[in-house]
Amino acid sequence: MYLAADLLNANPGLIVWIAVVFTGFVLLLRKFAWGPIVSALEEREQTIANSINRAEAALAESKRLQESNTQARRKAEQEAQRLVRKAREEAEALRAQEVQRTREEINALRAQAREEIARDKDSALQQLRGEVADLAILAAERILMESLNAKRHHTLVDRFIDDLSSRKGDAPPYEA
Amino acid sequence: MLQLRNSTCLWIVAALLLPATTWAAENEDFDAIHHTADGYYLDFLPIGKWELPRIFVVRSEESGWRVRFWRSTTAALRSGVMTAEVHQETAPADTAREVLAPSDDHASSHLDIEALIESGKHLDAHLVPALESERVILDLSMTRHLVFALLAMAFLTAVFMQLAKRYQQGIGRTSAPHGLVQNLLETLIVFVRDDIAIPNLGQNKYQRFLPFLLTAFFFILTCNLLGLVPFGGTATSNLNVTVVLAAFTFVLTQVNGSRDHWKHVFWPPNMPVPVKLLLIPTEIMGLFTKPIALAIRLFANMTAGHLVILSLIGLIFTFGQLFGSVAGYGVAPISLGLTLFVYCLELLIAFIQAYIFTILSALFIGMAIAEHSHGEAH
């Protein structure tokens, strides 16, 4: 029969056993288990910490790059807009200039044409005036053939012509 | 699913408790303390007992130092070299020593020993050399608790060597840890390192003590859990074992104590001299009370759990004997329910005590290795 006191029995043999075996156990595990395991854990933690640092640095770098890219793009866009505006203005100016020149040419041509028309009209009028005189003379000759001799005839014509030249533009009043 | 699992667990526990209870019913002197205390055998109730080897370092005037080894207690007794000194309670009216001591008549003494072996009480006996001139200097016999401590060590060695191999192969070093075992153990290892070692010992000094803290934590935890396994024994419910563990903490504390630590003990600063004289013995006592408290705390916690469980089971038979078998059966469900509850509590305590022993060890070592100026308040 065991007593409650037996739970507190001192057993020097057991103490020796446990002390020796546990010492060996600690040393064994320290060399072959805890060493490799803890160093592996530390290595992994270091790797993870480094990776995070690198990732953060890369992120910052990419943000910086993006920022500079955006700026460059904005600048390029502004430049392009400026160029387009300039080109458009130049084109506009060129067109206006062209229109002006065309208009001037047309005007010149028109003036020339008008001048020619006027000249032709003058010469036609001159011709017509000659024809009309001849026709008048012919008609008058026919009417006056018998009653007038050549001498009287000429006097009449001359007087008529003088009259014509003195009152040019009016319808010649026939007084004879 | 969860319900099913719970009820399955309950039945498994009940089934595991059954052999012990049946045996207890047949042998009315089922004794909780007997079960909890150490012994020179493994108890496979109800199948039987397996006796452990006996080793004695003896010394005699004639032949000097000798180591005697037997396969079992029975073998030691039958050899005639050792004889039994039985407890007063178990022995007949005359003292056992007188009855069992070898006399000139070898046959009669042999018979007595056979009778003792037959009764099964030889395992509780205290073995002494038959020759008066010979004395046992050290009884290095294997005990149940030693066997379970060795089992725990063997198990942990196998597990952690395997784990270390995994880390050396690169699993968990360069890649993520893989598998339940590695993740589980790594969680515990990192817990001991980050929540026990580093806060108490400091970032710079913890590496030196981490192997001991890890070993103590896993050893205590495994021993505690082995006590909850059927037919198991709890090495940590043996004061001899916990004293050794606490002695490790004590030695580490004193060997690594800083100048400040010793100054604090032998000439406490910032005090009037009379107070110093009062404090010095207190401080010296404090050096020893710390590890002693460590040893007793672990031992008492692990022992108490087992005693409570066995006492709760014992209720069934107490009621059965006092009020008849119907009362015994009536109490059984309540008793088993409470046992299951305490069993779960013990599972929790197994972890808590491993944690407490480790963190207090770290704390004591940390206090001793700390270097601080005494101008500041403590």
Account of the protein in words:
The complex is a heterodimer of chains A (176) and B (378). Chain A is mostly helical and 176 residues long. Chain A has one domain (13-145). Helices cover 85% and strands 0% of the residues of chain A. Chain A is rod-shaped and about 195 Å long. The termini of chain A are far apart. The mean pLDDT of chain A is 87. By secondary structure, chain B is mainly alpha-helical. Chain B has 2 domains: 53-141, no CATH class; 145-369, no CATH class. Chain B is built from 12 helices and 7 strands. In chain B, helix 9 (239-255) runs antiparallel to helix 11, helix 9 packs parallel to helix 12 and helix 11 (273-323) packs antiparallel against helix 12 (325-369). The longest helix of chain B has 51 residues, at 273-323.
Largest sheet of chain B: 3 strands, antiparallel
Helix proportion of chain A: over 70%
Uncertain parts of chain A: none
Average pLDDT figure of chain A: 87
> Over the alpha carbons, how many angstroms does the gyration radius of chain A reach?
65 Å
User: How many helix segments of chain B?
Assistant: 12
Shape by Cα distribution of chain B: globular
State the distance separating the first and last CA atoms of chain A: 193 Å
Largest Cβ-defined interface = A-B, 37 and 56 residues
Structural class of chain A: mainly alpha
Total beta strand runs of chain A: 0
Q: What is the chain-wise order of helices and strands of chain A?
A: HH
How far from one another are the termini of chain B? 55 Å
In DSSP terms (H or I, runs of 4 or more residues), the helix count of chain A works out at 2
Key descriptive features of the protein:
heterodimer, A: 176 residues, mainly alpha, 2 helices, B: 378 residues, three-stranded antiparallel sheet, 7 strands, 65% helix
